[in-house]
Structures are given as C-alpha cells and as structure tokens.
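Hi team,

Below is the intake form for Cobalamin biosynthesis protein CobQ from Paragemmobacter kunshanensis. Please confirm the fields before the structure is written into the shared record.

FORM ID: S-0412
PROTEIN: Cobalamin biosynthesis protein CobQ
ORGANISM: Paragemmobacter kunshanensis
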Amino acid sequence: MNTPSHMLIGAAVFARPLAPATLIAALAGGLAPDLPMFAMVLWATRVVGVPEHEVFSTLFFSETWQSVFAIDHSFFIWGGLLGLAVWCRQIILRAFAGAGLLHALADFLTHHDDARRQFWPVSDWVFRSPVSYWDARFYGNLFGMFEVALVVTLAAFLCWRLARWRERLLVLVVAAPVLLPVLMTGSLHGLHGMG
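The structure came back. Fields below:
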C-alpha cells in the first residue's frame, strides 16, 4: 500500500479531535515503517549513484535491505510498542504505535513479491499475499482503484471529523500524492512505488 494511504488509515483510527497531537502521532506512525526504505533508496540513488532500476530489482531484495524491512514492519515490535502505550495510558504513543501496526498489517495483506518478514524476530517466514498493491499480476490495478477510493473516503472522513482548518489542510496534503496523479492523468500509474 502507498505510504500516504497508511498515514490516513492510522489517522482515521487513532486521531482524536480533542487531542490534536494524536493526528500528528498517527500520521507519523503510518509513515515510520517506510522511512528506512526511503532513506536507503535515496542514499543508493543520490549518494552512491546506483541506477533506480537496479535498486528496485536487486538491492531491494538483498538480505541487508530485507533485514531492515523485517525490523521496521515487525508485528512484534509495533505490537509491543502499542501494548506499552496502552499499559502506560499514553494516548500519543498509542496513536503512533497503533498506526505503525496498522501499516504493517496492511502491507502484510498487499505485498506479494516484495513481502516482508513481519514475524521477525520470532520467525523469518514471509506471507506472500495473493494481492499486490502495485503488481497487475496480483490484482494491482483493481487494488489501485480501491486504494484511491479509500484515500478519498478517509480524507473526507477526517476533514469532517477534525474541526481545525490546519488539521484538515494536513490531511489533504497527505492525500495529495495519491489523488493528484489520478486527477492529472486519469490513471493509476503514478501511484506505484510510494511504499
């Protein structure tokens, strides 16, 4: 699933109108599992000079990169952090960790060839979902249409639920990378590779 979609799912579930910081925490939690990937791709392409096609065909699937993805998408790490937040009654941490856990769960259900080892450190088993958020061989085109509809729905829900104009603007800014390519080109091709 694309990163902005993860962020909006986390916000829809965990942001509380009476606690504005929970919106930021949930958006950050939805983003956090993909941050290491973004940093590694930028480092490889911009600093080291590896061609982008090589990054996504070779480096992405290397043991080193997959080890990082196992950590940042681990159900046990995000679930443990969420459990700690609930136990300590920390609403901000709960929003962050809950959104991170939802991100890992959504990726569990929408990644095939690029699936992560989400049961790390207990197991290196990988679930290869029959659905890919981007690969047409695994319903990626259909899922892309669903994802756009989901982003529209979540953005509308959050704008309705949140009273402050700054919060609504933030939600629209997060939704824009998914919606603008579709609005500008009429196709889903611009969505792939955002998470």
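SUMMARY LINE: The chain is about 65% helix and 0% strand.

Thanks, M.
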